[in-house]
Amino acid sequence: MTLELIVSPVEGGRPETLADPEALNRLPGGIPFWLDVTDPADREVEAVAGRFGLHELVVEDVRRGGQRPKFEEYPEYGFLVFYPTRWLPKEAGPESLECALIIGPYYLVSFHRGPLWLRDEVLEGWRSNLDRISDPRAALVHAWLDTAVDEYFDVVDRLAEEIGLIEEGILDSPGRPQLGRLFGLRKLAFGLRRLFGAERDALSLLIHRHRDALGPEAARYLWDVYDHMLRVVENLEMQHELLMGLTEAYLSQVSNRLNQTMQTLTVLSTILMSAGLVAGIYGMNYRLVPPDGESAFGFVFALGLMAAVGAALFMVFRRRGWI
How many whole angstroms separate alpha carbon 97 and alpha carbon 88? Predict the structure, then answer.
């Protein structure tokens, strides 16, 4: 467990690691700050809840985790669940981190299990926002959400690259590896669309219900973040439709190859059947076709006839494009 206190850049903004939960009682009153709690245990959650008067439902959500993105309004604060997401090149897939945010009148408290990789970018955005948003707490909320949403564009772009690669593989040589990766990308795109769609709705509730607490100045910038969220969701919807089309293209390619294989086998069977017909007639027991031994050229004639009929059929099928 790690408790990190970051006071507003206006007041100095130096990060400080708190030694124990009891230090929460000595937090500055009225001075904007960000309290970042990493890997909270029940004791730390209870201490934070007691310090800021959190509702028991909020405490339960923070303890249990696994919450869907949402925003809930309480008299003294807002409760937001958000999932910063980044693309991991080695795993060729995204990584999400569940974060529970308590947006108070002069503070922001964040809970998460695992390191928050966008911490430094948030601090940088917080400092730059103070030139545009006068309320330091609202500037921090905007910087936090804007940094998280901006990373979504990279995730969507990387997903588009993976779709492009699988598309080339399907058109060139469709096979089971492409099919497995295709269904994996479909599942990934569907999951991201559900996640980001829920975050879009939560962000909309935050702006509408918490507008008075954040102030109209910050709300204008948060609407810009919401617009970015809409673009991310729209891009994911298009990519999901593209993956559906690629699935149909894969099945069509496989069906075409199967038809081509069956056509080739049918042509070969027809040629072999013609040779079998000649052999069968030649071997029949009547005098019009003398049996082998009575004609020196009978066997050679039969072989030549088989070859001629097979070659003729081959040329006919070749001209029609069947082989």
Answer: 13
d(CA 266, CA 274): 12
Distance in angstroms (rounded) separating the CA atoms of residues 288 and 105: 111
Neighbours of 56 (CB within 10 A): 8
Residue pLDDT tens, the chain, 323 long? 688 888 877 766 677 777 776 777 777 677 888 999 999 888 888 888 988 899 999 999 999 989 999 999 998 899 999 999 999 988 778 999 999 999 988 889 999 999 999 999 999 999 898 888 888 889 999 999 999 999 999 999 998 888 888 777 766 666 667 777 778 888 888 899 999 999 999 999 999 888 777 878 888 899 999 999 999 999 988 888 888 877 777 777 777 777 777 777 777 777 677 767 666 766 655 444 555 555 556 666 667 777 777 777 777 767 766 66
Tokens for 144, please give them: 């936090």
Strands 2-7 and 33-38: antiparallel
Q: What is the dihedral of CA 122, 148, 102, 18, to 10 degrees?
A: -40
DSSP conformational letter for 26: G
Q: Which two tokens stand for residue 36?
A: 């970042």
| Domains along the sequence of the chain with CATH | 2-253 (3.30.460.20), 260-319 (1.20.58)
Number of Cβ within a 10 Å radius of residue 182: 21
